[in-house]
TrEMBL record:
It comes from Sporormia fimetaria CBS 119925. It holds the Pfam family Sen15. GO terms for molecular function: nucleic acid binding; tRNA-intron lyase activity. One of its GO terms (biological process) is tRNA-type intron splice site recognition and cleavage. InterPro entries: Sen15_fungi, tRNA-endonuc_su_Sen15, tRNA_endonuc-like_dom_sf, tRNA_intron_Endo_cat-like_sf. This is tRNA-splicing endonuclease subunit Sen15 domain-containing protein. It comes from the Eukaryota. The keyword tRNA processing applies. Keywords: tRNA processing. Signal peptide: none annotated. GO terms for cellular component: tRNA-intron endonuclease complex. Belongs to the SEN15 family.
Length: 163
């Protein structure tokens, strides 16, 4: 499907040059099974973390508060830093109709975290973040005017954020 490959390259260009992503890689086969993916996917490293699990947020705030108290900087706000994580990206066109079944086919073909560029052996998952327990993809939807909108989709039920 050359049109889907071209779409993936368009999204890759947008991520690299408009959003400063690095380590971008085009995937056409499943890292889990080696079978062809339902459509090309991208993986890459955004310049900052896209999603922080609510439980991880609480833990990070506790750690930052303890650090602030230990350094006696009570007047200053909390400084929380999180490292960016590799993300899956699903290139789509705005006109496409997506169903739970189609999304499920994508999630079934990928591990939680994209493989490193050095390509770990098939089926081996490397996940340095213990809070990342669900698969997620960034759905990149391209409008006919070439505007790209990004949404984060999770596989399964994910605990909602606290307000």
């Amino acid at each position: 499907l050359p049109a889907l490959h071209t779409l993936a390259l368009q999204i890759q260009h947008n991520l690299q040059y408009q959003h400063s992503w690095s380590a971008l890689c085009l995937h056409t086969t499943s890292p889990l099974t080696g079978d062809p993916l339902p459509r090309p996917l991208l993986s890459g490293l955004p310049p900052q973390r896209l999603y922080v699990h609510p439980d991880e947020q609480i833990e990070l705030l506790k750690q930052a508060d303890q650090k602030r108290k230990a350094t006696k900087n009570g007047d200053q706000g909390l400084e929380v830093q999180v490292e960016p994580e590799q993300e899956w990206v699903l290139p789509t066109r705005l006109s496409e109709k997506w169903t739970l079944r189609r999304l499920s086919e994508i999630f079934d073909a990928i591990p939680i975290v994209p493989p490193e560029h050095d390509a770990s052996p098939a089926g081996k998952e490397v996940n340095p973040n213990p809070w990342r327990t669900n698969k997620r993809v960034v759905l990149a939807s391209v409008d006919p005017d070439s505007t790209v909108v990004y949404y984060i989709f999770h596989d399964g039920v994910v605990k909602p954020r606290q307000n």
